[in-house]
Specification:
It contains 25 helices and 17 strands. It is of the alpha/beta class and 625 residues long. The protein has three domains: 118 residues, Chitobiase/beta-hexosaminidase domain 2-like (Chitobiase, domain 2, 2-Layer Sandwich), CATH 3.30.379.10; 313 residues, TIM Barrel; 158 residues, no CATH class. An eight-stranded parallel β-sheet has the order 10-9-8-17-16-15-14-13. Helix 13 runs parallel beside helix 14 and helix 16 packs across helix 17. The protein starts with 12 loop residues before the first strand and ends with a helix.
């Protein structure tokens, strides 16, 4: 090989020993029965390199050997790390992967596949000794904020994630499982069916991935509570004032009503048998109106104990079903004196999505109390359309670094769909890939050359263009401020009226404009930079089967972001564009958004998502009058 060897994730230890091994015209791959799937997985990936293999348990001298054998991982590593440990030896005479467990063999195969993808038949001789930092490395997909992916989309994504050694997947559910007695809630959502989950669980287990059930169980229940059948279980049946000042429909169960727990346990009894995981994430985050309605007197009297007692009740229900409970940690952090009273084995999911999030301080609280926890950063994709690269890397990196320092037992990369889930899935690939890398081994991966890795292993781009394109497109948020938590200004603009824009953007004087990064010149810089990046992406040469769809998705997201900048310019009187011209452009973009959506996702939720363009369309019509 003339180019440096790229690997994602970079192994814990790798030594190039000189020379190479030449794969035969039809390499012979020997495997025991227990690792046959890993052999098949490698065979399929080599076939993409036009290398056909023969699999056998024994026979003539093999080119590649998968060997289950006791491999000492060294002092200081846990039993779960030992299961995932592997050694890869490439010598002039053969390739050998050794591990004590089939999981380790699979991870060795993942690494070998990446090497051969670059090297072809002349494979460099080397020795790799590898095991992960975090034994649980997961991805959580939001499948409840309008967008429910097709099964083909989910299968394809999981196959890619398995190659990056991700070993846990969660589908965040509010109303998107087809509960047999609750069709009213999901009938227009195109939910996952019981059969689909059963089959997906098998698909994941083959790839050494744990499919963890995830059903929110306190807040974010608005899709349920809007119906009369469930409304009287609400904390505030008639709605509530949100922390941001607007009036919202009820979204939180009344934790003091025994029927709330009955509803949830009935859902659990139908959902959980479809999973083989020993974990269950019950959510319970962001119960915005808790203490404003039915529980007001008790919260005033007993504070956070009302929430804690709900968690304890759900914990009893989960453990009675033989599972270990996970729950989001945002509320218990408001009551740090109660952390010590959490059930001993309940796993707190410590989440935060800005690069400045205090993973260090929060993790220290759970560590001090002796409570198990995950760190849960995000992809920074939502409310951004094209991502926020620098923030995503900072957030994912901080979670790994501080999670290791404080003894976190897992690392979960979250990918949300707030406000219509307008961003396409490939925008999140950058966060998935970088998060998988730092979760595997922080020291070797926190400073990787991410664009090159994305081009090679995510976009499969022989022109080495798409990684840089996705990386740089995700950084255009720096051109237009002010900074927003969980989003960027030009994306948020698409759902705001002119009045709101003028209120949110400090368009007061030149100094304010300059400091806030919302001067007209900044908007024009964004427009030009996006055009420049799209022109660069035209030189890509992706080998992915979905390359055309992927390029269309990125282009659509970029054009929507540009439209947000154009709207800001119009709202502030700094453009020659007219409301009529922008209305026509937005209508064309809406048509394309629907086409792009249906390439990977089900129809359920699409109308709700598209309806969020209504505010801006209304503004254009008003301004034309």
């Amino acid at each position: 090989m003339t180019q440096p060897l790229l690997l994602l994730p970079v192994p814990r230890q790798m030594t190039l020993t000189g020379g190479s091994f030449t794969l035969a015209t039809v390499p012979r791959l020997h495997t025991p029965q227990a690792t046959l799937f890993s052999a098949h997985w490698l065979q399929q990936r080599l076939s993409k390199q036009h290398i056909a293999t023969q699999i056998a348990a024994a026979g003539s001298t093999p080119d590649i050997v998968l060997a289950l054998t006791d491999t000492a991982v060294g002092a200081g590593f846990s039993a779960r790390q030992h299961e995932q440990h592997y050694r890869l030896h490439i010598q002039p005479s053969s390739i050998r992967i050794e591990a004590a467990h089939p999981t380790g063999i699979f991870y060795g195969v993942c690494t070998l596949a990446q090497i051969i993808q670059q090297a072809g038949r002349e494979v460099p001789c080397l020795t790799i000794d590898d095991t992960p930092d975090f034994v649980e490395r997961g991805i959580m997909l939001d499948v409840s904020r309008d967008k429910v992916p097709t099964m083909d989309t989910v299968y394809s994504l999981i196959d890619m994630l398995a190659g990056f050694k991700i070993n846990q997947v969660q589908l965040y559910m509010e109303h998107t499982f087809a509960y047999s007695q609750h069709a009213q809630v999901w009938e227009f959502a195109s939910p996952f069916t019981p059969q689909e989950i059963l089959e997906l669980d098998v698909f994941c287990r083959q790839r050494h991935i744990d499919l963890v059930p995830n059903q929110n169980s306190l807040g974010h229940m608005e899709r349920w509570l809007k119906f009369p059948r469930y409304n009287d279980l609400s904390e505030t049946p008639n709605g509530f004032q949100s922390p941001w000042g607007e009036f919202r429909s009820p979204s939180t169960l009344n934790p003091l009503d025994p029927r709330s727990l009955t509803l949830m346990t009935d859902l659990y009894d139908e959902l959980l048998p479809h999973f083989t995981s020993r974990y269950f994430n019950i959510g319970a985050d962001e119960p915005w109106e808790l203490g404003q309605g039915a529980s007001k007197a008790e919260v005033e009297k007993r504070g956070g104990r009302v929430y804690l007692e709900w968690i304890q009740q759900v914990y009893q229900a989960v453990t009675a079903r033989g599972l270990t409970m996970q729950f989001w940690g945002d509320i218990i952090l408001h009551y740090p004196d109660l952390i010590s009273e959490l059930p001993a084995d309940a796993i707190t999911m410590e989440w935060g999505y800005e690069s400045t999030h205090d993973f260090a301080g929060h993790g220290a609280l759970f560590a001090k109390a002796g409570k198990p926890f995950y760190v849960c950063p995000g992809t920074s994709s939502w409310n951004s359309l094209v991502g926020r690269t620098e923030n995503a890397i900072g957030n994912l990196k901080s979670a790994a670094e501080n999670g290791l320092k404080n003894g976190a037992i897992g690392y979960l990369i979250t990918d949300w769909g707030d406000n219509g889930h307008w961003q396409p899935l490939p925008v999140s690939y950058l966060g998935f890939a970088y998060g998988a890398a730092v979760a595997w081994h922080y020291a070797q991966n926190h400073a990787v050359e991410l664009p090159a890795l994305l081009s090679r292993f995510v976009f499969e781009d022989d022109a080495n263009v798409m990684g840089k394109f996705a990386y740089e497109l995700g950084n255009v948020y720096h051109l237009v401020g002010p900074d927003h938590i969980n989003g960027q200004t030009a994306a948020y603009a698409l759902q705001n009226s002119q009045e709101n824009m003028l209120r949110l953007l400090p368009l007061i004087d030149d100094e304010a404009l300059k400091s806030a990064n919302v001067a007209p010149d900044n908007m024009r810089q964004l427009l030009a930079r996006v055009d420049e990046l799209l022109a660069m992406a035209a030189g890509q040469h992706m080998r992915r089967a979905d390359a055309a769809v992927l390029m269309t998705e990125f282009t659509q997201a970029a054009r929507l972001l540009q439209h947000g900048a154009k709207w800001i310019l119009l709202a502030s009187g700094e453009t020659d564009n007219t409301a009529a011209a922008l209305e026509n452009e937005l209508n064309r973009l809406i048509v394309q958004q629907q086409i792009t959506w249906l390439a990977r996702n089900r129809v359920g939720g699409l109308s709700d998502s598209i309806a969020r363009f209504g505010t801006l369309l209304g503004e254009y019509r008003r301004m034309k009058q």
